[in-house]
Structures are given as C-alpha cells and as structure tokens.
Amino acid sequence: MTGDGTRVVRAGLPEPAAHEPALPGPVFAAHFHLPGEAAGPYTYGRDNNPTWTRLEAAIGELESPDEPAHTVAFASGMAAITAVLFSQLRAGDAVVLPGDGYQLLPAVRTRLESYGIEVRTARPSTDDRASTSVPHAPVDRGHDARPDVLDGARLLWIETPSNPGLDVYDIRRLADAAHARGALVAVDNTLATPLGQRPLDLGADFSVASGTKALTGHGDVLMGYVSTRDPALADGVRLWRKTVGAIPGPMESWLAHRSLATLALRVRQQAEGAMALATALADRREVTGVRHPGLPSDPSHALAVRQMRPGRFGCVVSFVLPDRAHAERFLTALTLVDDATSFGGVRSTAERRARWGGDDVPEGFIRFSVGVEDPEDLIADVLRALDAAKA
C-alpha cells in the first residue's frame, strides 16, 4: 500500500512509454476516427475524451484506493451536484437537502420542486452521541417540521464539513439511517478533499466535489466530479452529463490532473496554516465564533477526529467580526490575502460571506481560506489587519 503523497503523484498516469511524456497533453477532438459500428472507447467529444479518462481514473484512485470506483468529471461542481440529483430523482420522489449547505442549494430546491420532487431541508445533529435513527433538528425556515425526514426519501444529501459553517456530520451514522429506509446517500466532499475524508469508505453511495477548490488548488480551473462504486449509478450520472452536455474541457481536465501531483503537499501545508490561524484568532477579543474542525474547542472536533484523516481538517477558518463595516475594514487592510470567493487555493483568500445573500450568517461573518504561505507571515498580516480594523 502506498501513501497519499505517492498516490497523488502517480494516480491516473499511463504506463511509461519510451520518449513519451509522463502525463500526455490534452486531447482536443470533437470527433474520432470511427470505422464500422458506433462503438469503442472514444467516438464523439461529448461522450468521452482520453484526457478525461486519465483524470477520472486518478480521482477514483484517491476517493476509493482499496476498491474499484467509477468517476465522472464535469465542467463545474454545480454540474456534478445537479447530475446526481437529476439523474436519480423523478416526480413524486423526496430528497433531503442540508439546511446549512452551499448557497446555491436553495435555487436547486426551487428547480427540483418545479419538477414535482418533494424537497425536505434538515440540519443533521453534530452530536456524535445522537440517535442513529435519523438526521434531526430541521432548520426553522418554514420547511419540514416532521421528526423523521428520511421516511420515504429517495436521496439524502450531506455536506461535511459544511460551507460556510464548518459543521461536521457523521457520514457513517447518517448513511446507515438512510440505507435502512431505502435512500441513497451523496456527500459533498469539496472542503475535505479525498485526502481528508473518504465518503465511499464511510457508506456513501456518491462522493461529489467541486474540483475548482482545493483539489486543483490554483484558482484557475472550473471542475467537478462524482465518484461511486456502483456501476449502474455511474452510468446514470454519465448519461446525464451526455444529455445536458456538462462536459469538462480537455485543457481544464489536463490542468486538473497535473495539479493533483501537489495535492498532498498543499493539503498538509494549508491544514497546518489553518490550525495556526484559528488558534491565533481565538485570543482576539473582537473575534467571535471561530470555527475550524481541528480546534479542540470546536463543537465538531471529536467527530472530525474520528471521521477525517489525522491533521487534515481543511484549509477554511470562519469567524465573526462585530459588524459589516468592521469586516470590510479588516479585509481592506490585509496585504497577503485576496478578497475573493471560493477556497482551497494556494493563495489565501477571505471574504465577508453575507455579501452574497445566500447564507444564513451574520454581516460580519468571514470565511477565510488559508493558502500555502508561511503561517507566520499570514498570521502576522491577519493580526495587523485586525488592529487596523479597530479604528
């Protein structure tokens, strides 16, 4: 068995061939030579591409190193998310979405409901001692008040750690509960990456992620993927991709594959920096609500230690400043951190998350993504900016 650092360097590469590159360049082709019957691995550019094949094999090795898995790459994370939802759900089905998930999920809810799909929104318990039966404590937004939101559901969607709240949910516990009721389970693994958490090993049917974030890590590629060990589920997702044309470009796929080689290095450096930053922020009086799963004081820490890989609790730290103006002064004063959305890149970014209007967070809520800068330099910049923001 090889370690993650070795695996990411070799994942998805073809067998060495004399005078050929280790990672062949992107294949740009709308069509392929196709004599005779319309069959073969590569027939038309919307169906498949050799560059996707290598990337998908690589991601499959990371998401499921010990068992065969099928991975389908997409043009974006949202393309991957919607492929799972719309390939599996039909009119009359019910789906359970997280109440604290990605901000576009409410828009997805509206679309699902327009197709006659019942959408229930619930916030699972983060208490690792909670009952194994069901996710509970539905979000108080006028949605489901039922005590058992899984009854009759076709699919349960879990996002852990959640974005931007950074709650960690017990995948194994929730997957067992969903499967006992005949529901499939999909886990958004974007923040953790497959080096931080393997949902398929924990009982999930799908592991879904936006490769735009930490997986590719350079802020220059839009990418998404779905991994599953069930070939029939993979076929359904792949057919959805073909039908709607949500295909990744060959250049983006090649860049994504190239970037995987440094994933272990980036994940380790970013996790160490995030932990150091969260610790430093905890000592600031004007900073409240510091969240990072690696902090021993974090309400999700005990579960994160059990479920996530040691020391790989993600690159994101969230915290709250007194108000909108204070948060804006802080962001303006930073010199080593870009005021930008997204997370997981090699350059640190931070933003006042409420500016988007889709998250249930205070006006002064900051989502901070730690890059690969030296932690000492980054923390010094943050502390200096906090001092400047007091004015």
From TrEMBL:
EC number: 4.4.1.1
Gene Ontology molecular function, alphabetical: lyase activity
Top-level taxon of origin: Bacteria
Requisite cofactors: pyridoxal 5'-phosphate
InterPro entries the UniProt entry points to: Cys/Met-Metab_PyrdxlP-dep_enz (IPR000277), PyrdxlP-dep_Trfase (IPR015424), PyrdxlP-dep_Trfase_major (IPR015421), PyrdxlP-dep_Trfase_small (IPR015422)
Keywords: Lyase, Pyridoxal phosphate
Entry keyword annotation includes Isomerase: no
NCBIfam families linked: PRK07582.1
Family according to the record: Belongs to the trans-sulfuration enzymes family.
Name recorded for this polypeptide: Cystathionine gamma-lyase
